[in-house]
Amino acid sequence: MKGSVHKAALAGLLLASPVGAADLDQLFAGLDVCQFDFFYYDEPDRNPSHSFFSERGLKPYKERDGLYHFHVQEQLFGLPVVELVVPGTQNFHMAVFDVPATEAKPVLTARFGIDFALSVPALAGEAPSLVADPRDPGRSFVYCVERQGGY
Description:
With 151 residues, this protein is of the alpha+beta class. It has one domain (21-144). It is 27% helix and 26% strand. Strands 3-4-5-6-8-7 form a six-stranded antiparallel sheet, covered by helices on one side. Strands 1-2 form a two-stranded antiparallel sheet. Strand 7 and strand 8 form a beta hairpin. The N and C termini lie far apart (58 Å).
């Protein structure tokens, strides 16, 4: 009897876990060229566009200038993420890391082979930038600005 209870509990956990659930590594796979497919907040429907949000029951805690902010406790390429900013009316994506830029940069550079510095391609929305959080030296963020001419 005890074994069947454990098996039933395990089966319930497996069914409750989203199979093939989206993770941030998948959503940010195009980070090096600032390509984010179907990763935005649908303002008319007041819903995030991607199942990543619904699978976790995430709702924005703030909207500012057409950008939606979400508190999260996730991993992105092995780095702890505490906030995501996704576009509603403009193309801007950002992940806030709970580590300083000096820790995040080698991980991101090893993954993508780029510098993540503020540059002309970054300003044109063709490459990401990684910066220290000016309000919290223990945090950093990687972001992509809107491409000239849109996506």
